[in-house]
Amino acid sequence: MTINPQLQGRSYPAADVYSVGRESIREFARAVKAAHPAHFDVAAAQELGHADLVAPPTYAIIVAQRADARLINDPESGIDFSRVVHAEQKFTHHRAIVAGDELVAELHVDTVRAMGGGAMITTRAEIFSVAGDAVATTVSAILVRGEGH
Amino acid sequence: MNFAELEVGQQIGSRTLEISRADLVKYAGASGDFNPIHWNERFARGVELPGVIAHGMFTMGAAVQLVTDWAGDPAAVVSYGTRFTKPVPVADLDGEPGAVVEVSGTIGALDANAGTARIDLAVTLDGQKVLVKAQATVRVA
Protein backbone atom coordinates (compact mmCIF):
# COMPACT_ATOMS: atom_id res chain seq x y z
CA MET A 1 0.00 0.00 0.00
CA THR A 2 1.40 3.40 -0.86
CA ILE A 3 0.70 6.76 0.68
CA ASN A 4 -1.10 9.20 -1.58
CA PRO A 5 1.38 12.09 -2.14
CA GLN A 6 -1.50 14.38 -2.97
CA LEU A 7 -2.53 14.40 0.68
CA GLN A 8 -0.16 17.31 1.27
CA GLY A 9 -2.07 20.56 1.63
CA ARG A 10 -5.36 18.80 2.28
CA SER A 11 -7.48 19.96 5.20
CA TYR A 12 -10.47 18.61 7.04
CA PRO A 13 -12.84 21.23 8.47
CA ALA A 14 -13.97 21.21 12.09
CA ALA A 15 -16.57 18.52 12.62
CA ASP A 16 -17.56 16.69 15.82
CA VAL A 17 -17.65 18.66 19.04
CA TYR A 18 -15.58 17.21 21.90
CA SER A 19 -17.11 17.99 25.30
CA VAL A 20 -14.46 18.17 28.00
CA GLY A 21 -15.85 16.70 31.21
CA ARG A 22 -14.44 16.60 34.73
CA GLU A 23 -14.24 12.81 34.80
CA SER A 24 -12.42 12.76 31.47
CA ILE A 25 -9.81 15.18 32.84
CA ARG A 26 -9.45 13.12 36.03
CA GLU A 27 -9.17 9.85 34.08
CA PHE A 28 -6.57 11.27 31.68
CA ALA A 29 -4.60 12.80 34.56
CA ARG A 30 -4.52 9.46 36.39
CA ALA A 31 -3.48 7.72 33.16
CA VAL A 32 -0.41 9.95 32.79
CA LYS A 33 0.34 9.64 36.52
CA ALA A 34 -0.36 13.33 37.13
CA ALA A 35 -0.96 14.27 40.74
CA HIS A 36 -1.53 18.03 40.58
CA PRO A 37 -4.73 18.88 42.52
CA ALA A 38 -5.94 21.26 39.77
CA HIS A 39 -6.74 18.15 37.67
CA PHE A 40 -8.88 16.58 40.39
CA ASP A 41 -10.26 19.17 42.79
CA VAL A 42 -12.44 22.00 41.45
CA ALA A 43 -11.65 24.24 44.45
CA ALA A 44 -7.91 23.79 43.88
CA ALA A 45 -8.31 24.71 40.19
CA GLN A 46 -10.38 27.77 41.08
CA GLU A 47 -7.79 28.88 43.60
CA LEU A 48 -5.37 29.13 40.65
CA GLY A 49 -7.89 31.29 38.80
CA HIS A 50 -9.39 28.62 36.53
CA ALA A 51 -13.11 28.23 35.93
CA ASP A 52 -13.01 24.46 36.50
CA LEU A 53 -10.64 21.45 36.49
CA VAL A 54 -7.59 22.08 34.29
CA ALA A 55 -6.49 19.49 31.72
CA PRO A 56 -2.90 18.15 31.77
CA PRO A 57 -0.53 19.65 29.14
CA THR A 58 -0.97 16.76 26.69
CA TYR A 59 -4.75 16.34 27.03
CA ALA A 60 -5.37 18.07 23.67
CA ILE A 61 -3.99 14.91 22.02
CA ILE A 62 -7.46 13.36 22.45
CA VAL A 63 -8.98 16.01 20.21
CA ALA A 64 -5.94 16.05 17.87
CA GLN A 65 -5.96 12.27 17.34
CA ARG A 66 -9.69 12.27 16.63
CA ALA A 67 -8.93 14.82 13.93
CA ASP A 68 -5.98 12.70 12.68
CA ALA A 69 -8.33 9.71 12.47
CA ARG A 70 -10.27 11.50 9.76
CA LEU A 71 -7.13 11.45 7.62
CA ILE A 72 -6.06 7.92 8.59
CA ASN A 73 -9.55 6.54 7.92
CA ASP A 74 -9.89 8.43 4.66
CA PRO A 75 -9.86 5.64 2.05
CA GLU A 76 -7.93 7.94 -0.28
CA SER A 77 -5.01 8.30 2.17
CA GLY A 78 -3.61 4.75 1.83
CA ILE A 79 -2.52 4.78 5.51
CA ASP A 80 -2.45 1.44 7.38
CA PHE A 81 -3.04 2.43 11.04
CA SER A 82 -1.24 -0.69 12.32
CA ARG A 83 1.96 0.55 10.69
CA VAL A 84 1.75 4.08 12.11
CA VAL A 85 4.44 5.13 14.58
CA HIS A 86 4.37 8.50 16.30
CA ALA A 87 7.60 10.36 15.45
CA GLU A 88 7.13 13.86 16.80
CA GLN A 89 4.56 15.87 18.75
CA LYS A 90 4.21 19.50 19.76
CA PHE A 91 1.53 21.38 21.68
CA THR A 92 1.11 25.13 21.77
CA HIS A 93 -1.54 26.25 24.22
CA HIS A 94 -3.32 29.52 23.51
CA ARG A 95 -5.31 29.10 26.72
CA ALA A 96 -5.88 26.36 29.28
CA ILE A 97 -8.38 23.60 28.52
CA VAL A 98 -10.87 23.32 31.37
CA ALA A 99 -13.83 21.10 32.17
CA GLY A 100 -16.93 22.42 30.41
CA ASP A 101 -15.07 23.32 27.21
CA GLU A 102 -16.67 22.37 23.91
CA LEU A 103 -13.86 21.89 21.38
CA VAL A 104 -13.56 21.40 17.65
CA ALA A 105 -10.48 20.76 15.52
CA GLU A 106 -9.56 21.69 12.00
CA LEU A 107 -6.95 19.34 10.54
CA HIS A 108 -4.26 20.37 8.06
CA VAL A 109 -1.90 17.96 6.31
CA ASP A 110 1.23 20.12 6.17
CA THR A 111 3.80 17.73 4.65
CA VAL A 112 3.98 14.24 3.16
CA ARG A 113 7.45 12.85 2.51
CA ALA A 114 8.19 9.37 1.10
CA MET A 115 10.57 7.42 3.37
CA GLY A 116 11.90 3.88 2.98
CA GLY A 117 8.79 2.41 1.39
CA GLY A 118 6.58 4.35 3.79
CA ALA A 119 6.04 8.02 4.49
CA MET A 120 6.46 10.73 7.12
CA ILE A 121 3.29 12.81 7.43
CA THR A 122 3.03 16.03 9.41
CA THR A 123 -0.42 17.13 10.49
CA ARG A 124 -1.54 20.22 12.38
CA ALA A 125 -4.75 20.44 14.35
CA GLU A 126 -6.07 23.90 15.12
CA ILE A 127 -8.29 23.48 18.15
CA PHE A 128 -10.99 26.06 18.86
CA SER A 129 -13.87 26.38 21.26
CA VAL A 130 -17.29 26.27 19.64
CA ALA A 131 -17.44 30.01 20.43
CA GLY A 132 -14.47 30.43 18.08
CA ASP A 133 -11.57 31.24 20.43
CA ALA A 134 -8.23 29.61 19.66
CA VAL A 135 -7.42 27.01 22.34
CA ALA A 136 -4.41 25.00 21.11
CA THR A 137 -2.34 24.14 18.06
CA THR A 138 -0.95 20.62 17.91
CA VAL A 139 1.57 19.36 15.36
CA SER A 140 2.14 15.62 14.89
CA ALA A 141 4.59 13.78 12.72
CA ILE A 142 3.65 10.19 12.04
CA LEU A 143 5.78 7.63 10.31
CA VAL A 144 3.89 5.07 8.27
CA ARG A 145 6.35 2.19 8.07
CA GLY A 146 6.68 0.42 4.75
CA GLU A 147 6.58 -3.41 4.64
CA GLY A 148 9.74 -4.90 6.12
CA HIS A 149 10.60 -1.72 8.09
CA MET B 1 8.57 31.11 42.01
CA ASN B 2 10.69 34.18 41.34
CA PHE B 3 11.95 34.56 37.76
CA ALA B 4 15.03 36.49 38.92
CA GLU B 5 16.18 33.49 40.97
CA LEU B 6 16.18 31.10 38.01
CA GLU B 7 19.36 30.24 36.16
CA VAL B 8 20.08 28.28 33.03
CA GLY B 9 21.44 24.87 34.03
CA GLN B 10 19.41 24.61 37.26
CA GLN B 11 17.88 21.20 37.90
CA ILE B 12 14.15 21.15 38.55
CA GLY B 13 14.11 17.58 39.83
CA SER B 14 13.82 14.01 38.68
CA ARG B 15 11.32 11.18 38.77
CA THR B 16 11.25 7.46 38.09
CA LEU B 17 8.33 6.17 36.02
CA GLU B 18 7.46 2.55 36.56
CA ILE B 19 5.33 1.35 33.66
CA SER B 20 3.18 -1.77 33.57
CA ARG B 21 0.87 -3.24 30.94
CA ALA B 22 -2.05 -2.01 33.04
CA ASP B 23 -0.76 1.57 32.65
CA LEU B 24 -0.92 1.19 28.86
CA VAL B 25 -4.47 -0.13 29.01
CA LYS B 26 -5.45 2.80 31.24
CA TYR B 27 -3.80 5.25 28.88
CA ALA B 28 -5.52 3.66 25.87
CA GLY B 29 -8.88 4.08 27.57
CA ALA B 30 -8.28 7.63 28.76
CA SER B 31 -6.88 8.86 25.44
CA GLY B 32 -8.93 6.85 22.98
CA ASP B 33 -5.75 5.49 21.32
CA PHE B 34 -6.52 1.78 20.99
CA ASN B 35 -3.77 0.87 18.53
CA PRO B 36 -3.17 -2.85 19.35
CA ILE B 37 0.64 -2.38 19.30
CA HIS B 38 0.14 -0.95 22.81
CA TRP B 39 -1.64 -3.95 24.32
CA ASN B 40 -1.48 -7.01 22.03
CA GLU B 41 1.87 -8.85 22.02
CA ARG B 42 1.05 -11.06 19.01
CA PHE B 43 -0.08 -8.10 17.01
CA ALA B 44 2.97 -5.99 17.95
CA ARG B 45 5.37 -8.78 16.90
CA GLY B 46 3.35 -9.30 13.75
CA VAL B 47 4.19 -5.76 12.65
CA GLU B 48 7.90 -6.26 13.40
CA LEU B 49 8.01 -4.52 16.78
CA PRO B 50 9.99 -6.03 19.68
CA GLY B 51 6.72 -6.55 21.58
CA VAL B 52 4.08 -4.32 23.17
CA ILE B 53 5.39 -0.76 23.35
CA ALA B 54 4.18 2.22 25.37
CA HIS B 55 2.24 4.94 23.59
CA GLY B 56 4.72 7.71 22.84
CA MET B 57 2.05 10.02 24.19
CA PHE B 58 1.96 8.10 27.48
CA THR B 59 5.67 8.67 27.99
CA MET B 60 5.43 12.28 26.85
CA GLY B 61 2.41 12.94 29.06
CA ALA B 62 3.88 11.30 32.13
CA ALA B 63 7.29 12.96 31.72
CA VAL B 64 5.83 16.49 31.77
CA GLN B 65 4.36 16.01 35.26
CA LEU B 66 7.75 16.93 36.63
CA VAL B 67 7.35 20.33 34.93
CA THR B 68 3.72 20.79 36.02
CA ASP B 69 4.58 20.13 39.64
CA TRP B 70 7.56 22.51 39.47
CA ALA B 71 5.46 25.23 37.80
CA GLY B 72 2.67 24.92 40.36
CA ASP B 73 -0.07 25.33 37.73
CA PRO B 74 -0.63 22.93 34.81
CA ALA B 75 -1.80 25.89 32.70
CA ALA B 76 1.64 27.52 33.03
CA VAL B 77 2.96 25.02 30.44
CA VAL B 78 2.41 27.11 27.31
CA SER B 79 4.11 24.75 24.89
CA TYR B 80 5.59 21.28 24.95
CA GLY B 81 7.16 19.21 22.23
CA THR B 82 9.32 16.17 21.66
CA ARG B 83 10.62 13.68 19.17
CA PHE B 84 10.08 9.98 19.82
CA THR B 85 13.32 8.27 18.98
CA LYS B 86 13.18 4.84 20.59
CA PRO B 87 10.19 2.69 21.49
CA VAL B 88 9.63 1.80 25.16
CA PRO B 89 8.90 -1.96 25.22
CA VAL B 90 6.81 -2.87 28.27
CA ALA B 91 7.26 -6.47 29.40
CA ASP B 92 4.35 -8.50 30.79
CA LEU B 93 5.61 -9.18 34.31
CA ASP B 94 3.94 -10.01 37.62
CA GLY B 95 4.84 -7.96 40.65
CA GLU B 96 7.40 -5.73 38.97
CA PRO B 97 7.22 -2.98 36.38
CA GLY B 98 7.54 -3.92 32.71
CA ALA B 99 9.72 -0.87 32.05
CA VAL B 100 11.41 1.79 34.18
CA VAL B 101 11.91 5.21 32.62
CA GLU B 102 13.98 7.95 34.27
CA VAL B 103 12.96 11.59 33.87
CA SER B 104 14.93 14.67 34.87
CA GLY B 105 14.55 18.34 34.03
CA THR B 106 16.92 21.26 33.65
CA ILE B 107 16.34 24.92 32.85
CA GLY B 108 17.54 25.14 29.24
CA ALA B 109 16.78 28.80 28.50
CA LEU B 110 15.18 31.87 30.08
CA ASP B 111 13.27 34.61 28.26
CA ALA B 112 12.99 37.65 30.53
CA ASN B 113 10.75 39.58 28.12
CA ALA B 114 8.21 36.79 27.85
CA GLY B 115 8.68 35.73 31.48
CA THR B 116 9.15 32.13 30.39
CA ALA B 117 11.57 29.33 31.18
CA ARG B 118 12.34 26.46 28.81
CA ILE B 119 12.66 23.18 30.64
CA ASP B 120 14.67 20.49 28.89
CA LEU B 121 13.65 16.98 29.89
CA ALA B 122 15.98 14.01 29.77
CA VAL B 123 13.88 10.85 29.43
CA THR B 124 15.78 7.58 29.34
CA LEU B 125 15.25 3.82 29.39
CA ASP B 126 18.31 1.76 30.38
CA GLY B 127 20.44 4.87 29.90
CA GLN B 128 19.21 5.50 26.35
CA LYS B 129 17.11 8.50 25.38
CA VAL B 130 13.55 7.64 24.39
CA LEU B 131 12.46 11.26 23.96
CA VAL B 132 14.75 13.70 22.18
CA LYS B 133 14.43 17.48 22.35
CA ALA B 134 11.70 17.13 24.95
CA GLN B 135 11.19 20.77 25.84
CA ALA B 136 8.44 22.57 27.71
CA THR B 137 8.02 26.32 27.89
CA VAL B 138 6.64 27.51 31.20
CA ARG B 139 5.21 30.92 32.06
CA VAL B 140 6.88 31.96 35.30
CA ALA B 141 6.24 35.66 35.78
Tell me about this structure:
Chain B: InterPro entries: Fatty_acid_synthase, HotDog_dom_sf, MaoC-like_dom. Chain B: Residues 8-92 form the MaoC-like domain. The complex is a heterodimer of chains A (149) and B (141). Chain A is of the alpha+beta class. Chain A has helices at 22-31, 42-47, 61-72, and strands spanning 11-12, 18-19, 84-93, 102-115, 118-129, 134-144. Chain A has a single domain (5-144), classed as Thiol Ester Dehydrase, Chain A. In chain B, 23% of the residues lie in helices and 37% in strands. Chain B has helices at residues 21-31, 41-46, 56-63, 65-71; strands at residues 11-19, 77-84, 99-111, 116-125, 128-139. In chain B, 40% of the residues are buried. Classes of the chains: A alpha+beta (149), B alpha+beta (141). Chain A binds chain B through residues 24, 27-28, 30-36, 38-39, 48, 50, 54-58, 61-62, 65-66, 81-93, 95-96, 139, 145, 148-149, and chain B through 17, 23, 26-27, 29-33, 35-37, 43, 47-48, 55-58, 60-62, 64-65, 67-69, 73-75, 77-84, 87, 136.
What's the number of helices of chain B? 4
CATH architecture of chain B: Roll
Name of the top-level CATH class of chain B: Alpha Beta
Total number of domains of chain B? 1
Radius of gyration of chain A: 17 Å
- CATH topology of chain B, anyone? Thiol Ester Dehydrase, Chain A
**SSE topology string of chain B:** EHHHHEEEE
**Superfamily (CATH H level) name of chain B:** Hotdog Thioesterase
Reported for the largest beta sheet of chain A, the result is: 6 strands, antiparallel
Domain MaoC-like (chain B): 8-92
GO cellular component, one term (chain B): fatty acid synthase complex
Protein name (chain B): Acyl dehydratase
Family (chain B): Belongs to the enoyl-CoA hydratase/isomerase family.
